[in-house]
Amino acid sequence: MNIMLFHSAFGLRPAVEAAADRLRAAGHEVWTPDLFEGRTFDSVEEGMAFKDEIGKDELLKRAVLAAAPYSDRGLVYAGFSFGAATAQTLALGDDKAKGLLLLHGTSDIAEGVTVDEFPVQLHVAEPDPFETDDWLTAWYLQMGRAGADVEVYRYAGAGHLYTDPDLPDYDEEAAEATWRVALGFLETL
């Protein structure tokens, strides 16, 4: 598969490159665009402030420009937290997209979006302060109404960005379970 993997609000950190390497080792071609142009952050608050400073429209433009040269290949869009939200937006707007792998995040779904049995897999902590139960239930129902084939995996007790070994949220058991399931999902596309 051809995978476009977007970073979280922490920026393009070593954990994103390690995830890309894991995907490459499984036979996938992976791109990791740097939407923050080299900036990384030590706290989610700093990253979110920088994200807000750049603005949603500019970040979306950067993401579209990063994906455009490869979209004809039929991309799987993937991302971590803020990057997952970005991946979701692009995937639902790309009629050649092959799938959507969301790690630690979701996004609003545009009115009138329809897809035909589009494969979507979400991995998220339980509970997650950024992805509340009510939000996830509504998101799941909206994705289903849009025509997506959605799988949701919850990880009890894990922190929000539990796949990043350099962050306090890291949970090795949950991270390994996530990658095992995610790699299986990618094999089915």
Structural description of this entry:
- By secondary structure, the chain is α/β, with parallel strands linked by helices.
- The chain is built from six helices and six strands, in the order E-H-E-H-H-E-H-E-E-H-E-H.
- Strands 2-1-3-4-5-6 form a six-stranded parallel sheet, with helices on both faces.
- It is globular, with a radius of gyration of 15 Å.
- The N and C termini lie close together (8 Å).
Structure characteristics:
alpha/beta, single chain, globular, six-stranded parallel sheet, 189 residues
**Unreliable segments (pLDDT under 50, ≥5 consecutive)?**
none
On the 0-100 scale, what is the average pLDDT?
A: 97
Oligomer kind: single chain
Rg estimate, integer Å: 15 Å
- CA distance, first residue to last residue: 8 Å
Helix/strand structural class:
alpha/beta
Shape: globular
Q: DSSP strand (E) fraction?
A: 15-25%
Count the E strands: 6
Query: What's the tally of helices?
Result: 6
Order of helices and strands: EHEHHEHEEHEH
Strand order of the largest sheet: 2-1-3-4-5-6
Write the layout of secondary structure elements.
Layout: E1 2-6, H1 14-25, E2 29-31, H2 44-54, H3 56-67, E3 75-80, H4 82-93, E4 99-103, E5 118-126, H5 133-146, E6 148-156, H6 172-187
Parallel strand pairs: 1-2, 1-3, 3-4, 4-5, 5-6
